[in-house]
Structure formats: structure tokens, C-alpha cells
# Entry
Amino acid sequence: MKRKEQMEQLAEMTAAELKDQADALKESLFRLKFRKTLGMGEVVNDIRREKKTLARVHTLLNKKDGKTAEA
# Structure
């Protein structure tokens, strides 16, 4: 999925959905790191992609929390 499409999809989510997405990404990162430790294939690019997606989710969560705090 391209970055712009991914950002549009994430921006449409509610704060609760973003929190669920963040939890799923953390779980995925844990599993990928475990696979890397065991030496099961090349997962470095997958780890990098998941980290970036998690950072995007946290950025959007902070923006949405800021809007609700100001209102």
C-alpha cells in the first residue's frame, strides 16, 4: 500500500480504531522481531515498514487527542 493511500485510510479512522491499530502493529512488531532473532528469513524491511506505520498512527492519535482537548 502506498504511503498516501495509507495516510488517507488512517486519517478516516476514529481515535478508538487508531488505538486498536496501534496495538495490532505493536503485536506484529513483536512477532517480526522474534522471527528475526530466530533467523527465520529477511524481516528487516518488514520491521522498518511496521515501525513507520506505527509512528504515523501515533501522530494521528496525537492530532485527534489535541483537537478533542481544545474543544
Summary: Residues 16 and 61 are 9 Å apart (CA to CA). The helical segments are 3-11, 15-38, 44-70. The two ends are 33 Å apart (CA to CA).
